[in-house]
Design a protein that fits this description.
alpha/beta; about 10% strand; 25 helices; about 675 residues; Mannitol-specific EII, Chain A; 6-stranded mixed β-sheet; elongated; Rossmann fold
Length: about 675
């Protein structure tokens, strides 16, 4: 039904006047009565006024749309009035009303008045449309303005319907939400514009979700691209064709993804009741799902690691500046009240690292019921069995009790019961799958008990199971692995192979620049920092080889991640012919990102010319990591770039390593990269 079909010429007044709201409503009702669509005018009039008492229909911008659904209406109709001088109508914005539409709807289930109200509201948002109505000289001109606007609107909607297969939605998200999220969104939007495809991209970054997809948009889309390495709410896509892939694919394979979406080359996503259930598609392999769950935990962990780590590093810096570096011993970092404060607060934040990691891995797998179980598993991983080691678990020197005492509770021959970072990862996955198992096991319970499942059954049984597994099996086993890691780092340092480790870690940061390999190196770095903290808590000295090896590894990782953007920025400066105008324009942003330890600034260059760019960044970052380790540069903070250089051991040599790697990258690009077209 069209608006024009409801609006009779005799029900239009272009030169109206009124003394107030009540007067103008009475006149509008009288206009409606002229259409012959009202069987009982007075009853209809009462209905109009009654509706107005519920809340004003003056929507603002000089517009009012009073309406009434009543048995007094024979057929749906409209009346319109233009009041040149305006009339006080108690509008939402307090301004006088000069354009009014009155809707009459019969009391049927069709809700015609709501449909018409919706269409009118959309059209009345267009200032050109409302001005055309206000300035119409004749009724015919008034009607033509409506006809033209409605026809254009209907044509747009028709195009949307017929071209729905070309309408694509996307969601992008990376674990840190710093760069990949928005680069993938930009790449998809740019290629979509070039291909003539309308697209909306929801970004899920560190600041939360932006441009969130609506139910209406999802319903009208031909396909949805989910390019994410972190958890994305998926149930809303039930019944839609969904392409799941890594966030890097959104950057590097945008055109391929859009072509697949347009062609309908995707599996239909089906959401399971109370949980996520994903179809396996390209990019949605088991390995990718494991990586996605892991990165979900890492993304939530990072703020604790970065904030707490930098505060701890400041504590060490304060003591170093005050001359306690060599004499502080195990108290280093808390030799003064100020440093002790920073170390205490930073330590508390860092202490949450493993529980948060485990909790959000479990959340990614099993949704909210997984949180409690995951957090508990993470706490057990970071604290071990310390609380209960004081009890006598073995009354005899033989038998099963003796085994339990030795293995799980640090008996005379037992192992380390703190599993730490690695244990947190395992605890997160265990917790997630334990909750999924419990959901399935209790799925047949009566619906009346659904309320107690997430609040009682899942957390109680889940926490019990994860506690048993961590305390009696995985804490001891992974604790032994951690002990081996510590011993291995000591051996590497003693054998003079720490430079090799630095080279490898630095190079890993530049292979995929924010992708899985880059993240693996960074996760290793945060893990060895946690290992160093555990060693210090057990009485190790900051100068011990194993502790120093941890800090050297972290320093190599950060300098390796800082090289690619800086090297590319230098290449843009000194070899401009090798890059397009657009690429050269990003030079300043790459300097900033590189200095801030944000490797992702190099991604667009690597994506555009991977065969030439990646080898150059790989070599430069590897050399920087090698030199950093060779100079025995240390870093106690897990992030920060130049802003934490004051906490670096041998900072001048560290800057030299950074500069050398960046220059090597730039020179190699200048030599092997082809001139831009």
């Amino acid at each position: 039904m069209r608006i024009r079909d409801l609006l009779a010429a005799e029900s239009i007044e272009l030169n109206g006047s009124a003394a107030g709201k009540q007067d103008v409503l009475n006149k509008m009702v009288d206009l409606m009565a002229k259409s012959g669509k009202i069987r009982d005018v007075e009853t209809y009039r009462k209905g109009v006024f009654a509706r107005e008492e519920e809340g004003t229909t003056g929507i603002g911008e000089g517009i009012a749309i009073p309406h009434c659904k009543s048995d007094a209406v024979k057929a749906p109709g409209l009346a319109a009035m233009v009041v040149k001088d305006g009339v006080e109508f108690e509008a939402l914005d307090g301004a006088p009303v000069n354009l009014l539409f009155l809707i009459a709807a019969p009391n049927t289930e069709d809700n015609v008045h709501l449909e018409v109200l919706s269409k009118l509201s959309v059209l009345l948002m267009d200032e050109n449309f409302t001005n055309g109505l206000r300035n119409a000289k004749t009724v015919d001109e008034f009607l033509k303005v409506i006809d033209d606007a409605e026809s254009a609107k209907d044509e747009d909607e028709k195009e949307d319907e017929t071209g729905a297969k070309y309408k694509v939605l996307a969601v992008t998200g990376c674990p840190t939400g710093i760069a990949h999220t928005y680069m993938a969104a930009e790449s998809l939007e740019k290629h979509a514009a070039e291909m003539g495809i309308t697209i909306k991209v929801e970004t899920r970054g560190s600041g939360g979700a932006k441009h969130v997809l609506t139910d209406e948009e999802i319903a009208g889309a031909a396909a949805i691209i989910v390019a994410a390495d972190t958890k994305v709410p998926m149930d809303r896509f039930d019944g839609k064709k969904v392409i799941e892939c890594k966030v890097a694919d959104g950057i590097n394979k945008a055109e391929q993804l859009l072509n697949r979406a347009v062609a309908g080359d995707a599996l239909v996503y089906h959401a399971a009741e109370g949980s996520r259930k994903e179809e396996k598609a390209e990019g949605g392999s088991t390995a990718h799902m494991i990586y996605t769950h892991l990165m979900s935990g890492v993304s939530h962990m990072l703020p604790f690691v970065i904030g707490g780590g930098i505060m701890t590093a400041i504590a060490f810096l304060i003591d170093t500046l005050l001359g306690y570096g060599a004499t502080g011993g195990s108290a280093f970092g808390s030799c003064t009240p100020l440093s002790a404060f920073f170390k205490y607060a930073g330590g508390l934040a860092m202490g949450l690292m493993v529980p948060v990691l485990a909790g959000y891995i479990a959340y990614s797998i099993a949704d909210r019921p997984g949180l409690a179980v995951g957090f508990t598993g993470g706490l057990l991983a970071s604290s071990g069995n310390a609380l209960i080691t004081g009890y006598n678990w073995a009354d005899s020197t033989t038998g099963f009790q003796k085994f339990i005492a030795d293995f799980a509770f640090q008996g005379a021959n037992g192992g380390n019961t703190v599993s730490g970072f690695l244990g947190g990862i395992l605890a997160g996955f265990l917790a997630g799958f334990i909750v999924l198992f419990l959901k399935k096991a209790f799925s047949k319970l009566p619906a009346s008990l659904d309320g107690i499942k997430p609040t009682l059954i899942y957390p109680l049984l889940g926490i019990l199971i994860i506690s048993i597994l961590m305390c009696f099996i995985f804490n001891p086993l992974i604790g032994l692995i951690n002990t081996g890691l510590s011993n291995g780092l000591t051996a590497i340092s003693d054998a003079g192979y720490i430079t090799v480790l630095g080279l490898i870690l630095g190079a890993m940061m530049a292979i995929d620049m924010g992708g899985p390999i880059n993240k693996a190196a960074y996760v290793f770095g945060t893990g060895v920092l946690a290992t160093a903290s555990q060693m210090l808590e057990k009485g190790a000295q900051p100068g011990d080889p194993a502790v120093q090896a941890c800090y050297i590894a972290m320093a190599a990782i950060m300098v390796g991640g800082m090289v690619p953007p800086i090297g590319i920025a230098l290449a843009c400066q000194f070899f401009p012919k090798k890059f397009t105008k657009e690429e050269r324009g990003s030079k300043v942003s790459n300097f900033v990102m590189g200095a801030s330890f944000i490797t992702e600034g190099a991604i667009p260059f690597a994506a555009a010319d991977p065969l030439h760019v990646i080898p150059c960044t790989l070599v430069g970052a590897g050399v920087a990591g090698f030199l950093s380790a060779l100079f025995k540069c240390t870093l106690m903070a897990p992030h920060g770039g130049i802003f934490v250089f004051a906490t670096v051991g041998h900072p001048l040599l560290y800057i030299l390593a950074w500069a050398a790697g960046s220059v090597i990258t730039a020179v190699m690009l200048g030599v092997i990269k082809k001139d831009a077209a």
